[in-house]
Amino acid sequence: MTMNIRSCAFVALLAMTGTANAGEYTLSIDETRVNFTGAEADALAINGSIPAPLLRFTDGEDVTIHVTNNLDETSSIHWHGLLVPPEMDGVPGISFDGIPPGETFTYRFPIRQTGTYWYHSHSGYQEQEGIYGPMIIDPIGPDPVAYDREFVVLLSDWKDDDPADVHANLKASSDYYNYAQRTVFDFFDDVSERGLGATVEDRLAWGEMRMMPTDLSDVSGYTFLTNGQTTEAPWTGQFVPGERVRLRFINGAAMSYFDIRIPGLQMEVVQTDGQNVVPVTVDEFRIAVAETYDVVVTPQEAGPYQILAESIDRTGFAAGVLSTQEGIGSVTLPPSRPRSLLTMADMGMNHGGMGDEISSQGTMDHAAMGDEMPSQSTMDHAAMGQDMPPRGTMDHAAMGHEMPSQGTMDHAAMGHEMPSQSTMDHAAMGHDMPPQGTMDHAAMGHEMPSQSTMDHAAMGHDMPQQGTMDHAAMGHGGPVSNDVFSPPVGAPEGAKILTYADLAALEPNTDLREPEREIVVRLGGNMERYIWTLNGEKFADAGPIMLRYGERVKLTFINETMMNHPMHLHGMFVELDNGQPTETQPRKHVVNVGPGRTYSVDITADEAGEWAFHCHLMYHMSSGMFRKVVVAKLAAEAIQ
């Protein structure tokens, strides 16, 4: 079967506006052909449509969903954000074995929540190939959000290429899809603006880290879709002037973040990840992969109004139209805004003088310590058994290493066994060091807490207890906030951009206990080999994260990479530590952690079972940024 853009969109639109038997659905996963780019390509579909049909439930009902897999490979459906029994979560290898070719699996679970959610395959690359769709769960009584009309706005990204080939290209060359690399003309522009010395220093720093400030997205060149339609045949939602129109935004993309605005209209954010929040009026918001945001707009004029979802790397738009008319032709898109560049501050490096202050991005500011950077040796690699160039500089290309994004040293990623005594050659830095090789920050003139040690065990490093450095005690790990986007949105001056700090739960949280313990999760990666890790380990090499049923835990993400990571925990909501009182901390199932940032969430481990925990960027998850979380009814001592 071949579906062109218009017929595919027509089927999808019918699915979204139609109804189905309450509480029971039958879904069929099949191969299909699509044409989103002007050329036909292979795809996968549910019930013949991309996106898949809208599933609509009511809080409190029991749901039965029959899923038949007509592919020649195993498939699955995960109910993203839903509170379901673990065996119904739809993750092969954790929840169940998957749905074999030609077989039907029946999902049965009670509905225990309300809001906007979505569902997608959790097998291979099938989500990227078209297996994704929206879900809405209505409350039994009146909805706390008042609206006259609603639309689902499901955003996604599409490539005609086989996703397996895309992944292979990334492993062969991590910048394979970076179409905006800096040129010699950019160099001279920077020299003119910043001076030769600062420009050269900046280029050397990025070169040593084997990173690029333009590398905002791993994969560029996507065609972006809104409800399965391109900008050449845009999705249109009809309204009557003066109505309150609810737009249920879902980012079902595999790899793409979007900055969303509706020129001429302000948006009232009323829900995120299915959870109601105190309304916040904004001009624009960024939606990470797998997040959902519900907004209400009240257009007073006939319009039309463009819904613009601009990709974070500024390579294109997903777009739709709000209009009083039924369907319109192609839209005239505005020019893409300038692509923002990551900076050394984003990456946690500060080469300027700042006295003895620690860089806010959570690395060691060696310039502030009086160290020569980067040409003088900062680590005794001879002691580590490493062959080093005669100048003692760190040639990570020769070593096959990729530097973490903050400029810190992920020795676990390098496969180093650390010596029992000296871990850093501070004598070469001109520092007086105690015999056992710990870091005497007082000798360096730093004000540091007495317990300062670097916790390499938390990073997966083999380190002696006395030779460690506690970055948490030093205030390292990045700014504890996601309020400053990396990169910035680039909206006009004075525009209100939504931040996590703006969000407050509409319904108070019920568990107000302080967390009993903290679990640190370091987000790492090796871009040259395209390996992504949690605490220095790929999924295949890592044991589960153990939680005791009923305990209260603080989960702290430390992003040591140059990329945004939308972290998703199955089976439970987390509460953002965003400055709100505990009772109004917003609940989410996806938390974006920006480059070089640290962000904490609180969890009540009230869903027993085995759950997936991963970055929702598909190629990151497939490359190792995945872990199992086990919530077990065990004694406290069994978890430690």
What does this molecule look like?
This protein is mainly beta and 640 residues long. Among the domains are: 2-143, Cupredoxins -  blue copper proteins (Immunoglobulin-like), CATH 2.60.40; 353-466, no CATH class; 500-639, Cupredoxins -  blue copper proteins (Immunoglobulin-like), CATH 2.60.40. Helices cover 11% and strands 29% of the residues. The protein contains nine helices and 31 strands. The protein has helices spanning 5-17, 163-172, 184-194, 196-209, 396-399, 411-414, 471-474, 618-622, 636-639; strands at residues 2-4, 24-35, 41-46, 55-58, 62-69, 78-80, 104-110, 115-120, 132-138, 149-158, 223-226, 235-238, 245-251, 258-261, 267-272, 275-282, 285-287, 292-297, 305-311, 317-323, 517-526, 531-534, 545-548, 552-559, 565-569, 574-576, 587-588, 590-593, 598-604, 609-615, 626-632. The longest helix has 14 residues, at 196-209.
Summarize the structure.
The protein is mainly β and 640 residues long. The protein has helices at residues 5-17, 163-172, 184-194, 196-209, 396-399, 411-414, 471-474, 618-622, 636-639, and strands at residues 2-4, 24-35, 41-46, 55-58, 62-69, 78-80, 104-110, 115-120, 132-138, 149-158, 223-226, 235-238, 245-251, 258-261, 267-272, 275-282, 285-287, 292-297, 305-311, 317-323, 517-526, 531-534, 545-548, 552-559, 565-569, 574-576, 587-588, 590-593, 598-604, 609-615, 626-632.
